[in-house]
Amino acid sequence: MSVQAVSLPRAERFIGHHPVLSFAARRILWGVLTLWVVSIVVFIATSVLPGNAAKAILGKNVNPREVLALERELHLNQSLWGQYWYWMGHFVHGDLGRSAASILGSNSHESVGALIRAPLGNSALLAGITIALLIPLSLLLGVLLATRAGKWIDSLVSTSTLGAISLPEFVTGSVLIWLFASTLGVLPAVSLIGPGQNALSSPKILVLPVLTLLAATLAQCVRMVRAGMIEVLRSDYVQAARLAGVGERRVLFRYALRNALAPSVQVIALNAQWLVGGIVVTETVFGYPGLGQLIVNAINLRDIPTVQSVAMLLATVYIALNIVSDLIIIYLVPKLRTAQ
Question: What does the domain layout of the chain look like in residue ranges?
Answer without folding.
Answer: 3-104, 114-336
